[in-house]
Write a structure and sequence with these properties.
By secondary structure, the protein is an alpha/beta fold. It is built from 8 helices and 15 strands. The longest helix has 11 residues, at about 135-145. GO terms for molecular function: arylformamidase activity.
């Protein structure tokens, strides 16, 4: 893609699809992380300047893994090692990660492909605890009509963002969550993306009440392959429009030493002339 191609995308004839959920108090999240909190700390009128002007500010409290976010490579380890064989004791210093922290997540502007699993199965969304299999991914890739480029982004749709307004259903603690399993992770790794994403909290399949049994897909992608994972995305708009391939853009916050970052990814799609 040339500079002129990128400039053209910023002009007319391009539609932007926001792939992030609004972030507010009480959003669905993993019980493993502190909740998001936002509170106004200074109201208009609390301080009034001589010219009559006033300002208002707030305080934010959040984990790097609440709302739409991207995992840094420091987020997961296996046998005491991060991606590249980095020992966890070497990766951390004075309460933050000096290797593989969120500030090292690259800004992403690359090919994106939507793998719409419910569409190829002829359903509205996947069932709780349902695994996305390699044959599902093959069919979804064929439907998208695109060839994955190394360093791109693959977004796996389950239809789960339809439940975002129902916190208990979306979190799936007692019902399980649909997603990628170990075989699907191998399928993804062979295509060498820079990142993958999905709509659920963990991206990977969760059986009911099994939170403590490990995260094999996180291990395979983050630890073995160095592939970032984007979670709690909003993919319904892309699916409804029948979009398969697009320009994907995501800029994480440069949170030094963090294990993840809130993000606002979007897809840019050229409209018909």
């Amino acid at each position: 893609m040339t500079t002129q191609d990128l400039i053209a995308l910023a002009g007319e004839g391009v539609r932007i699809y926001d792939l992030a959920h609004p972030l507010e108090n009480g959003v669905p999240q993993s019980a493993d992380h502190p909740p998001f909190r936002m509170s106004v700390t200074r109201r208009h009128g609390d301080i009034i300047r001589k010219d009559g002007s006033s300002g208002s500010t707030e305080i934010l409290f959040t984990s790097g893994h609440v709302g739409t976010h991207i995992d840094a490579l420091a987020h997961a380890s296996f046998d005491g090692k991060l991606f590249g064989g980095v020992p966890v004791e070497e990766a951390m210093d004075t309460g933050r990660y000096v290797k593989h922290g969120a500030e090292q997540i690259p800004i992403l502007m690359c090919q994106g492909i939507l793998l719409d699993i419910p569409a190829v199965l002829g359903r509205e969304r996947l069932d709780p605890d349902e695994e996305v299999l390699p044959e599902h991914l093959d069919a979804a890739l064929e439907r998208a009509g695109a060839e994955p480029q190394p360093g791109g982004v693959l977004l796996v749709r389950t239809g789960w963002d339809q439940l975002f307004g129902d916190r208990a259903a979306f979190e799936g603690e007692t019902t399980g969550l649909p997603g990628i399993g170990p075989d699907g992770a191998d399928w993804i790794a062979r295509r060498r993306p820079r990142a993958v994403g999905g709509e659920t909290i963990p991206f990977e399949r969760f059986a009911p009440l099994t939170r403590s049994r490990g995260l094999p897909v996180h291990k395979r992608l983050l630890v073995d392959e160095g592939i970032h994972i984007i979670e709690i995305m909003r993919l319904g708009g892309l699916a409804a429009a029948g979009v398969g391939e697009f320009l994907f853009v995501l800029a994480p916050l440069p949170l030094v030493g963090a294990t993840g970052s809130p993000a606002r990814p979007f897809a840019a799609v050229k409209t018909a002339e």
